[in-house]
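#struct-help
A.M.: can someone run this one for me? Single chain, 272 residues.
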Amino acid sequence: MEAQKPTTKPAVKKVEGSKVSGIKNAFLVIIACLIVAVCLFLFWFGHESHFEEGHPIDIWGTIYKGGFIVPILQTLFLTVIVLSVERYIALSSAKGKGNITKFVAGVKACLAKNDIAGAKKLCATQKGSVAAVVAAALTRYEEMDMNTVLTKEQKVATLQKEVEEATALEMPALQQNLPIVATMTTLGTLVGLLGTVVGMIKSFQALSNSGAPDSSALSTGISEALVNTAFGIATGAFAVISYNYYTNKIDNLTYAIDEIGFSIVQTFAATH
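D.P.: on it. Structure tokens below:
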């Protein structure tokens, strides 16, 4: 029983050390973006200076003619922008201070010389999620090195489990808010399509009137259709680019963690 006690202590340390910065409540971001979008729609796009005899005279007035779906699309677009900036800051802190490739090479060089203390110093300098996982694995490495109760196979399995647990602790923080950005890729396009359909319905209603078509109603319907289409495409495109970009960055961090974790386990297995 006493030999298994050390396995429970590092878990507490890992929870305290997982401090990837980021917005925890994305719902508040959406609410804030909605307020900004509605204010822009009412007080800027809808300002009388953008109209002459009820007709828009610039791009802002034209956007206002897009109708009530415009602030919804603007909310989605602003949410994507805010969460993209938030993920950039969060993943930058997760990466740490130095270059990940150099950090991986430095740790592997220390492992080759069995310089565990040197590898831990590199982790303290690098910081971030990758360094946190490596530091936890190196701490367990030293514990297993001094352990005289467990067999070699048990020590290797314990060390491997430590790497997996430390990685699992960091991954949610890395992927936080990305599912929302992924949702915006589809939602933005669908809401834009809804605005397009509503605008075209208004246009056909203007054409179906008896006598001469109402040119004002016709232009309003066309404006609503085109503006909503543009906002929907822009939101979906930006969300796709952002999601793929940050997913790739997370994959690179995960690969670095896996590479160092494998090296730590293999070094222990080869030297004990």
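A.M.: thanks! Residues 1-17 have pLDDT under 50 and may be disordered.
D.P.: also worth noting: The longest strand covers residues 51-52.
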